[in-house]
Amino acid sequence: MFITHVKVKNWRNFRKAEFDLTQPVSYLIGPNASGKSNLIDVFRFLRDIAKPRGGGLQQAVAERGGLASLRCGYVKQDSDVRIEITLSDALHGPHEIWRYGLGFRAVGGAAIDRVLVTFELVQQGDNPPFVSRPDQEDENDPPLLTETHLEQTRANAKFRSIADTFANVGYLHVVPQLIKHGEDIGGNRLEGDPFGQGLVDRIANTPRERREIYLGSISDALRIAAPGLGRLTFRFDPAGRQHIYAVGENGRVRKTWQSEEGFSDGTLRLIGILWSLLEGKGLLLIEEPELSLHNAVVEQLPALIARAQRDAKHKRQVIISTHSEAMLSNPGIDAGAVIRLVPSKEGSELVPPTDAEVAALKAGFSVAEAVLPNTRPKGVEQLSLWQ
Amino acid sequence: MTSVWLATEDSLSEAVAERLLTEATPGVEIALRFGGRGCGYLKTSLPKFINMAHRVPGLVLTDLDQTDCPHTLIAAWFKGRPIPEGILFRIAVREVEAWLMADKDGFAAFSGIPKVKLPQDVEGVRDPKEHLLGLVRRHAPKNVKMDLLPLDPSQTARTGMNYNDRLIDFVRRSDGWNPARAAANADSLRRARERLAALRVP
After folding, report:
1. Does ipTM surpass 0.90 in this model?
2. Closest-CA residue in chain A for B172?
């Protein structure tokens, strides 16, 4: 299912925020510290509640440092945090709509790291809701309100597809150094492997036939982005460890083999992003995919992602946070695909494209030309005059 | 509130256009800013600006540079067709740097260059930016030199790293650049200000 509408209240640096997701790929833009990652965290939070292993509301709140750091500091009263999501089985054409809503607050003040559900709603179309809490059962047994129905396999039988959609949310902020040196550092791997440390393992665990198809698709893309790299394949090294190899022709008959440790940061990031698009399912959140990539390659990212979405077994909905002018210069990006954050004294706000920006887009300017300049921090030139 | 857009060659011209616009038409909202990629971008995007002007009016400010006169430039850009009503098309003779130096009192105070050394006829200066840099090299105090001049003149950079932001700061300060004073010495600026004043919205 696709997530088509989001409404939050009292969430991190948003008093309230509401936006549509109408396109296969949406772009989240805004200055530094405007709350791009915080907004993306709504989806990760739902994933953390719904995930089959170690999920749940209490855990998801605790992982974020408790309710005190989760709720919006700009909201004076101790009010509920609320999240309302609309889902649909298609982005266009006739479709069925589902709604999921969740509200919660701290028990006996925010100091105690335990939260209670104040509101939970699951509804399909205009039918009577499957769930509308608090209900009679909750009244009879108040501790039930420490859990959502989303996290209970028994309770969510009638809306399993919603729970699965949330559980499948992926988050990607590939850190190439962690892929290369993960073993040396011996670092913990976070749930869902956001930094790509486990990329090689994930590739290893994919059935061979599918793995070769995916690596073939990625090789095609890399042939242009990183010419000379060669074709990707997957093998054991002499020590028995698995690696991604690029097999190139070095001009003579001899082939050159290069493992992922020798890949450039940009190459690894591209492989990580493309692999996730091809392999997984559900909403994929990608933070600043432009990092360490050449501008000319970044320009092609929207097209590359669109192609990967077409090649994938499950077409993933994608939300990208970016500062990149090059990426947004693709004229195929619609005004409706842009979610813009604007910081203010009272927390961040979502500002839809203005009339003038829409006029500029219709006149043929790209999002990079018409919308992105308006996210520039005011007086940024002063930055270099600091004393 | 009336919305307009701005299209300029670089951030310095943008600051100049913004200052002129907000002084001439207080309360106007600058809805969009295009440019920052030189005059080539402005020229190639002209059809889009014309298209845009049907919906939202805008100001294009470009440098004359080495073209012999503004009429030649307009004829070349618009291919002989009239400039559409929604576009106010202004040309700085020959670069906005000339407009800055035209405010002799302000520029002398900002740069530390003696007023008498500033050009009498700024619009007659063939390359105002080069002229400005030359004056800084000869007469400005050390801190101004450090901001405006390249670190190593034998290399390729023409200006210092802080050239734009230092001049932008001058343009934006109410006690810095004085457009009215400058207009008395730069005819292209005087006419630009007059046309902008005529735009005044009720």
Report:
1. no
2. A379
